[in-house]
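Key result, reporting period 2: structure in, sequence out.
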């Protein structure tokens, strides 16, 4: 399920479905994944964490605000980060249900990949994140990704990616407001803990 996108925060619904995330005010990612702040892993992502708030206490975010959030949140992120947006009412167990969604993945050299679909998008197991030969700023409708029903786009233009993602919901599918949407994200895994040994599992 996509966690509800309301006000200036992404509320968290743990254990209900696939997606959960929290984002506050300046739209930085909460990378603790709902875990306690004293967790040793908290410090590793300290620069990307904001305090959680009750989204019901804040006004609804406009479409322009959502573009601003996406634009700011996608800058200086690690390669392989995945951000997904879709309806907050969707439950991932509904295998046959149509779900209008979008997925943004960070590639190398500042390139982002936006995928649009009417079915739930999986997480790609890419063999290579290099971008040297990618066609930038040109829509691809070649069916290369089986779960990507409505094309994908490579671009270094963060604002273009953000605006295109928002337009997919607002203009193409008539989503009434951002309050109907939710967001999820996944940071890349690391093979080894930090050298200082603070990342204890």
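The corresponding designed sequence is given below.
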């Amino acid at each position: 399920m996509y966690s509800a996108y309301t006000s200036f925060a992404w509320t968290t619904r743990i254990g209900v479905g696939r997606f959960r995330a929290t984002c506050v005010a300046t739209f930085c990612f909460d990378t603790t994944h709902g875990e306690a702040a004293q967790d040793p892993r908290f410090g590793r992502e300290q620069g990307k964490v904001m305090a959680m708030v009750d989204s019901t206490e804040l006004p609804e975010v406009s479409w322009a605000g959502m573009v601003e959030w996406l634009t700011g949140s996608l800058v200086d992120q690690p390669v392989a980060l995945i951000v997904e947006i879709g309806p907050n009412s969707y439950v991932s167990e509904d295998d046959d249900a149509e779900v209008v969604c979008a997925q943004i993945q960070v590639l190398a050299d500042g390139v982002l990949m936006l995928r649009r679909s009417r079915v739930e998008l999986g997480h790609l197991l890419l063999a290579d994140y290099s971008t040297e030969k990618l066609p930038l700023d040109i829509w691809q409708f070649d069916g290369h990704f089986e779960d990507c029903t409505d094309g994908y786009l490579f671009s270094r233009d963060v604002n273009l990616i953000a605006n295109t993602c928002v337009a997919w919901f607002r203009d193409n599918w008539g989503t009434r407001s951002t309050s109907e949407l939710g967001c999820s994200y996944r940071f890349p895994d690391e093979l080894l803990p930090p050298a200082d040994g603070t990342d204890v599992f």
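The chain has a mean pLDDT of 75. Strands lie at 3-6, 9-10, 23-24, 28-29, 82-87, 101-106, 112-117, 152-155, 181-186. This case is discussed further under Risks and Mitigation.
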